[in-house]
UniProtKB/TrEMBL annotation:
It comes from the Bacteria. Signal peptide: none annotated. This is Recombination protein RecR. InterPro entries: DNA_Rcmb_RecR, Rcmb_RecR, Rcmb_RecR_Znf, TOPRIM_dom, TOPRIM_RecR. Residues 77-172 form the Toprim domain. A zinc finger (C4-type) spans 54-69. It comes from Roseateles asaccharophilus. The lineage of its organism: Bacteria, Pseudomonadati, Pseudomonadota, Betaproteobacteria, Burkholderiales.
Length: 193
């Protein structure tokens, strides 16, 4: 494959980018912004080398413990379960949640081969059983798979005598948390049950 085609193929791996958009991006860079290309390549290499997962909550982190987990002043009684680091960032931006997180890095989707092992359910249960945790807030998305994930986790937590709550409705059905406005998220959080 020549260099242009392999650039287009690489760009097509990005979400929402099809053949046409990938072509447009490749031609744009080559024609109008060649200096951006080594910067982009450098940023990609640095990101893949430096950004790993937090040992405790699994979110993206350049250090073994992420900023939130390393912050001893947060509320250790609360543990909020989200699907992605982007969802976690959305909750952080509301400024209304002061507990800790656990990031599943996905949601249950048996047809895609994503089961309880892939979302780290065992690690979550161990984390939730730690001293001081009083409530696990299930903030998975309001999609069918997100709801199923919340249900399975709630059952597993209940079996271990750990209280869990779910974000209140108000977050539109079918939506990913990261795209919901902050006021709505904050509301869903305070109205959890
Ligand atoms: Zn962390």
């Amino acid at each position: 494959m020549n260099a242009l085609d392999s650039l287009i193929e690489a760009l097509k791996r990005l979400p929402g980018v099809g053949q046409k958009s990938a072509q447009r991006m490749a031609y744009h860079l080559l024609q109008h912004d060649r200096t951006a290309m080594p910067r982009l390549a450098g940023a990609l290499t640095a990101a893949v080398e430096r950004i790993k997962h937090c040992e405790r909550c699994h979110t993206f982190s350049e250090t073994p413990l992420c900023i939130v987990c390393a912050d001893a002043k947060r509320d250790r009684r609360l543990l909020c379960v989200v699907e992605t680091p982007a969802d976690q960032a959305a909750l952080e931006r509301t400024g209304s949640y002061l507990g800790y997180y656990f990031v599943l890095l996905g949601r249950l989707s048996p047809l895609d081969g994503v089961g309880t092992r892939q979302i780290g359910a065992a690690e979550l249960l161990a984390r939730a059983a730690e001293d001081g945790v009083e409530e696990v807030i299930l903030a998975t998305s309001f999609t069918a798979e997100g709801e199923a994930t919340a249900h399975v986790l709630a059952e597993a937590l209940r079996a271990r005598g750990i209280k869990s709550t779910r974000l209140a409705r108000g977050v539109p059905i079918g939506s990913e948390l990261e795209y919901v406005d902050l006021g709505t998220i904050a509301h869903a959080l305070s109205d959890r049950r």
